[in-house]
From TrEMBL:
Keyword Repeat: yes
Name this polypeptide is given: TATA-binding protein interacting (TIP20) domain-containing protein
Sequence ranges assigned to domain TATA-binding protein interacting (TIP20) in this UniProt record: 1083-1245
Coiled coil regions in record: none
Highest taxon in the source lineage: Eukaryota
Keywords: Repeat, Ubl conjugation pathway
The keyword Repeat belongs to this UniProt entry's keyword annotation: yes
Stretch list, region Disordered: 317-349
Residue ranges, compositional bias (Acidic residues): 332-349
Record organism: Acrobeloides nanus
Length: 1277
């Protein structure tokens, strides 16, 4: 402490020097000391520092003064309240000084000090603000003491104080209000503007009574100053600012303001007043979208008129609606060029009409952005108007008009899922071709509603007029205009792929001039190339092939551009051109592409040879070369010695090996069967090395390439040490740590065993050990299990000299079972399937029957453990499913053996027996289905197990393509059995019956759907619930024949059940609705509007369902509606993911608010919904951000109870973490910084070490995953 005081004393001494440089350096050193966290000042040093800095504020040197002001910031955090009071008192007094310079410096210093005060909850800060506020208010109304410059600073300080401390204590708002209204009468515009900002902050914190009084005061001022245009403009701007700051309270005043402002526009000729009114309309639409519905027609009429408001200029009359393919479209006459030149030269500094037109364009953009339900009407009226105004003479206005039309296109694009739009079209476009124009058109025809299809029809009709207008604009000299043209065209193709069919030739001159013009900047070239790539990928190849001779030289020149982003974008276009010239699907027709192959190859190869280029360009070049060889390899055989070694070099490079592996995979998988023998001996060892790397994506890519190579060279060509190295590395990848890698590894080994059995012998024992260990995993199922079985089949069928015998292989697989190892139930299923598969693969009926006899002996031996019995039962079932011939013969009665296992004490054995009996019946329906139905009718105590067995049969038969005649003859009997169990008292029986009924409807929808509908109308609540659940099992993500029939009946299944009196029926209906919305939204799209009100009604707590239960001395609250509310919120989450266009966002957000007041689990769900809403509808969420902040704040301030257990604390932490994550997402929505409540939440988080730690952890996690929030869909039932 003594050393610090000594250092500061030295600095203070130097500050008194007559040399300004000494004073400057000493002040700078003091600031550096004050910024250190460790420094602490004693009382005497505090006084000296404060006194000296206040003195330096009057220094004659401006730089010293500025540095002294900056020093006050960190000093605020180091001194005690008495010294802080001295500073603010001194600064307030100096602001009244007669010296203008002193006043200005003191006002800036005071602003710095108050800005550095701790948060609004700090008592010292509040006392300081209370001390300074009256003097600020007095200074505003005292024109003699305070000049305009100081008042500007005071207004800034006042706005800052109100926003931070306005809700903490009573600031005598009446005096502040009067002082601010005085400023509105001043002539200086800057004063009025800053007073407007301060008043908007004030209106956000005052009570409702004062709020209403101020708004009425503004209305009165508008009426009084009708003929004073300057004052009117000020009050219109004030109204906009208040609406931005407190839109929920302002909304009910809209009927008084909007008609008044429309009259102002019509009755006054002042362009700046009209601009202010139009800006106000834009704010009203942005902040109070729902409340503005009744005024939209009038506003559209006004904005449409003012968009063309240009009294000082006469535009040429041009028929914008006609389009010709002749020379009139492609070239302009000399007169038109002269007209364009005249436009460029036109200028009038006194003409303010351009501000009106710009404000009108922005207002139209707001209308089309926030009224998505009027898309067709917007295209018909506003779309046509905007296109006609592309001829606007002022470039700034023109660009806003472009943005307004782009907003229309963006709303259209939101109708389409990502797979049909930009992401699928451009992302990794060289390697994949998911998008096709035919696929898009089929989607629009089959998946969209009539209203949605009408949007695309209206847009398609408008394309001709749009291209005509853009064609003219591409001839303008203004670079920004041309850039906006290409951005708009790109958005057009995102919204309507294929839109430029027949018009692309009209845009070629613009593309050509942009890419060759020396004055074109990089951004413009990038946007142009991006548009060209989009066009090439969204049109039929035949329509664009004639334009390749013009496009190709432009693009190849751009590949050599010195700016890496231009070069990278050009390479993307090169890939698109390659696909257009010779589509891999053979849809290119008879176009002669041979003249272009060499120039494309040389362009790519020259770039590939350069090593010191940007990483993005390297990757795009490698990708382009891979596509080039895959597409034109048969024409480039003489170039292999040049290009393949280059790819091999890139494969050896750590930075480019990943993309090179993918490029080689593309070459190998292509239809041309390109010969890679030149590099194959070097590639295999490298791929073997890649399998040892920790980089997962590299492993997966390498395994895919290896599988392709083995398939490609299945007749020989890979016999070398490299393949042996690969085989040795693969067993290490066959484990449960990464099942996708394990699956690919198993597939690779299966292919190697089939094609190169001699290469596998040395690693066979290690490989088998890895496979056997994997079969014992609880995670093994699905495709990975299928890969294990395929490997076993390949192994048995392969002519390997040292492969194990039938008995040895079975012993290895089942050793863990007989050794009594602790295994998961799934492991027994995997081992049983493996054993049965081996028996089938050997095709030795004698050995297979011998195996069955051993299993029968095992089952009949009560001394053997349950785990071995479990394995035996499952194996018998699997044998029956895939190798039913083993049970031929009179002595073989596996059904009796399995059914007897129902008497076992172990529940696992009973369940396994049920599964085995179903598997047995699947393998031989004629023999075992009658037995199964007979058992169901005769064994009432075994219904649950027998229904499970029946479920296996129905699930197998419901798969597409199955049509067993035996099953068809019994299907009516099965239906009756299942319907009887729909009303069972056992919930388990009802659930199985529901699944089986759903699967039966998949088999014959025309027969059973109407019968199921009868069950929905049953008097039994259990029957109704079961029937609705059955509908859920018909809804899968793949298209099925039942879809069309189900779509017609969906409303009948759901409309009544979602309003049912029974709680369980309503929950079943909502869960089914959720499933439909997630998997096949088209099924419920037409009836969703009718269902939403019932769904929303389930989101609030119903007191009649909440009651207390006494449990000994304790009372426990039971909420019977909790599960139903969870289902409702889960369904709501799904709806915004898949049916956003059918949801009224503002009604939806009302119900989200209900969830934030509910129980813990529902709060967590609601936070997820709010995060997703902020990502999908940021502008709408911005209008409610204050209300959401009020509901989030209590979650952040939660305190643990004294008697809380660890589980309660964990739940509370989880809730806080979700709240912090939500705040982090809300910070990304537009204009979040205008919300004082949002600022308060951020202060709370930053002021709490616990919450700050959560925030930092979430940001790190988001950064590592490179996402801004949770985009993954929530898993629901």
């Amino acid at each position: 402490m003594a050393s610090i005081s000594y250092q500061i004393a030295n600095l203070l001494d130097k500050m008194t020097s007559s040399d300004k440089d000494f004073r400057f350096m000493a002040t700078n050193d003091l600031m550096a000391e004050l910024q250190k966290d460790s420094i602490k000042l004693d009382d005497d040093t505090e006084r000296k520092v404060v006194k000296m800095l206040l003195k330096l504020l009057e220094d004659k040197n401006g730089e010293v003064q500025n540095l002294a002001v900056r020093c006050l910031g960190p000093l605020v955090h180091k001194i005690k309240p008495p010294q802080l009071d001295i500073i603010v008192d001194s600064l307030c007094s100096n602001m009244e000084s007669k010296d203008e310079r002193t006043r200005d410096v003191s006002s800036i210093a005071l602003k710095t000090v108050l800005g550095e005060l701790p948060g609004s909850l700090n008592a010292n800060s509040i006392n300081c603000v209370k001390r300074v506020l009256p003097r600020l208010t007095e200074g505003l109304v005292n024109d003699e003491k305070m000049g305009s410059g100081v008042k500007l600073e005071i207004l800034d300080i006042l706005a800052q104080i109100i926003s931070r401390f306005g809700r903490v204590f009573d600031m005598n708002f009446e005096d502040i209000e009067d002082a601010l209204f005085v400023q509105f009468e001043k002539d200086r515009q800057a004063l009025r503007k800053r007073a407007t900002t301060a008043l908007s902050f004030l209106m956000d914190v005052v009570d409702n009574e004062r709020y209403d009084r101020v708004v009425k005061r503004i209305l009165s001022a508008c009426d009084v100053n009708t003929h004073k245009v300057g004052y009117l403009r000020t009050y219109v701007l004030i109204t906009s600012a208040i609406c931005r700051a407190s839109s929920p309270r302002f909304a009910h005043f809209l009927p008084q303001f909007v008609p008044k402002f429309i009259r102002f526009c019509e009755d006054n000729d002042d362009d700046e007043l009209r601009e202010a009114c139009l800006q106000a309309f834009e704010t009203f639409i942005f902040r109070c979208t729902k409340d503005m519905n009744s005024f939209l027609d009038d506003i559209v009429k006004a904005t449409s008129a003012f968009l063309t408001h240009d009294p000082n200029y006469s535009y040429d009359d041009i028929d914008e609606n006609s389009i010709e393919n002749g020379s009139t479209m492609e070239t302009d006459s000399a007169d038109e060029e002269d007209d364009d030149a005249d436009q460029d030269e036109y200028s009038d500094d006194d003409d303010m009409s351009w501000k009106v037109r710009r404000a009108a364009a922005k207002c139209i953009e707001a209308i089309v952005t926030y009224r998505t339900d009027r898309l067709v009407e917007n295209y018909s009226t506003l779309g046509t108007l905007l296109i006609s105004r592309f001829k606007e003479r002022e470039d700034n206005v023109k660009h806003d008009i472009f943005q307004a039309y782009i907003a229309l296109l963006k709303q259209t694009k939101m109708i389409l899922p990502d797979s049909y739009t930009h992401h699928a079209i451009i992302n990794d476009t060289a390697l994949t071709q998911h998008f096709t124009l035919e696929k898009f058109r089929n989607f629009v025809r089959d998946e969209l509603s009539n209203e949605q299809r009408e949007v695309f029809q209206v847009l398609e009709k408008q394309v001709a007029q749009l291209v005509r207008a853009i064609h003219r604009q591409l001839k303008q000299k203004n670079l920004k205009t041309r850039e906006h043209c290409f951005i708009l065209l790109t958005h057009l193709l995102k919204a309507l792929p294929g839109a430029l069919t027949g018009y692309f030739h009209l845009l070629l001159p613009g593309i050509q001039s942009t890419l060759t013009d020396r004055v074109s900047d990089s951004n413009m070239k990038i946007h142009t190339l991006h548009f060209v790539a989009m066009a090439l990928n969204t049109h039929e190849p035949k329509t664009l092939q004639p334009h390749v001779p013009i496009l190709l030289p432009l693009v190849t020149n751009s590949v050599q551009d010195s700016f890496y982003k231009v070069s990278a974008e050009a390479l993307v276009v090169i890939c698109s051109i390659i696909r257009v010239l010779r589509p891999l699907d053979g849809q290119g027709g008879d176009f002669d592409y041979s003249p272009y192959i060499l120039s494309i190859y040389e362009s790519i190869c020259s770039k590939l040879k350069i090593t010191d280029i940007d990483q993005e360009v390297k990757e795009k070049t490698i990708t382009a070369m891979g596509l080039m060889i895959a597409t034109f390899g048969d024409k480039l055989a003489n170039k292999y010695t040049e290009c393949l070694p280059l790819l091999l070099d890139r494969l050896r490079n750590e930075m480019t090996r990943q993309v090179t592996v993918k490029a080689l995979a593309l070459i190998v998988s292509g239809p041309l069967k390109v010969d890679l023998s030149l590099i194959i001996s070097d590639v295999l060892p490298l791929l073997a090395e890649f399998l040892r790397k920790n980089q997962r994506t590299l492993r997966i890519s390498s395994l895919n390439l290896l599988s392709l190579l083995v398939s490609r060279y299945s007749q020989g060509g890979l016999e070398n040490a490299g393949l042996l190295r690969v085989v040795k590395e693969v067993p290490n990848l066959i484990n449960e740590q990464d099942l996708q890698v394990a699956q690919l590894s198993l597939k690779l080994i299966s292919d190697v065993i089939t094609a190169y059995p001699d290469q596998i012998s040395d690693s066979l024992s290690t490989l088998l050990a890895a496979v056997v260990k994997l079969t014992q995993s609880s995670l093994l199922q699905g495709k990975t299990l299928g890969a294990v079985l395929c490997l076993l089949i390949s192994l048995v069928k392969s002519p390997l000299p040292n492969k194990p015998t039938f008995e040895q292989l079975l012993d290895q697989l089942s050793k863990a079972v007989y050794d009594q190892q602790q295994l998961h139930r799934q492991a027994y299923i995997s081992i049983a399937k493996s054993v049965a598969t081996v028996a089938l693969a050997y095709k030795d009926i004698g050995k297979a029957k011998s195996l069955v006899n051993e299993l029968k002996i095992t089952l009949n031996n009560p001394q053997i453990s349950d785990s071995v019995h479990l394995f035996a039962i499952l194996t018998l079932g699997e044998l029956g499913r895939i190798y039913s011939a083993v049970y031929d013969g009179k002595d073989m009665k596996p059904e009796t053996l399995i059914t007897n296992a129902f008497n076992a004490n172990s529940e696992e054995i009973k369940t396994a027996a049920s599964y085995a009996l179903g598997s047995l019946a699947v393998g031989n329906l004629e023999k075992y289905l009658p037995y199964l139905l007979k058992e169901i009718n005769e064994q009432p105590k075994r219904q649950y197990l027998l229904l499970h067995a029946l479920k296996e049969v129905i699930a197998s038969e419901s798969q597409e393509g199955s049509s067993n005649e035996v099953f068809k003859t019994r299907v009516d009997e099965i239906w009756q059995v299942l319907v009887k169990h729909c009303d069972s008292a056992e919930e388990g029986n009802r659930n199985i019956a529901a699944e089986c009924l759903g699967k039966l409807c998949l088999i014959d929808s025309s027969k059973f759907l109407n019968k199921l509908l009868e069950c929905v109308k049953s008097n039994s609540a259990r029957m109704r619930a079961t029937a609705v659940i059955a509908v859920r099992f018909m809804i899968v993500d793949q298209p099925l024949a039942v879809d069309d029939h189900l779509k017609q009946l969906m409303s009948e299944f759901l409309l009544d059940t979602v309003r049912d009196q029974d709680l369980n029926v309503r929950r079943a209906a909502i869960v089914t609705l959720n499933s439909a919305a997630h998997n096949k939204p088209k099924l419920i799209r037409e009836c969703l509007t009718q269902l939403l009100s019932s769904l929303y009604s389930e989101t609030s707590v119903k007191p009649e369902l909440v009651h207390e239960v006494e449990m000994g001395p304790f009372k426990h609250t039971v909420d019977e509606g909790l599960d139903l509310r969870k289902a409702a919120f889960e369904c709501m989450y799904t709806l915004i993911e898949h049916c956003l266009d059918r949801v009224d966002i503002f009604v939806y957000m009302d119900n989200v608010e209900n969830g934030l007041k509910d129980q813990h689990d529902i709060k967590l769900l609601t936070f997820l919904m709010l995060i997703r809403l902020a990502q999908l509808c940021p502008t709408q969420v911005a209008q409610r951000v204050d209300r959401f902040c009020d509901l989030i704040k209590p979650q952040l301030l939660l305190k643990p109870k004294q008697n809380a257990v660890k589980q309660d604390n964990d739940k509370q932490d989880e809730l806080k973490r979700s709240a912090v994550r939500t705040v982090l997402t809300l910070r990304r929505i537009p204009h979040h910084d205008r919300s004082s409540k949002m600022t308060e939440l951020i202060e709370i988080i930053k002021g709490s070490p616990e919450l700050l730690g959560m925030l930092e952890a979430i940001e790190r996690d988001n950064s590592s995953r490179n996402i801004g929030g949770s985009d993954a869909p929530m898993e629901t039932e």
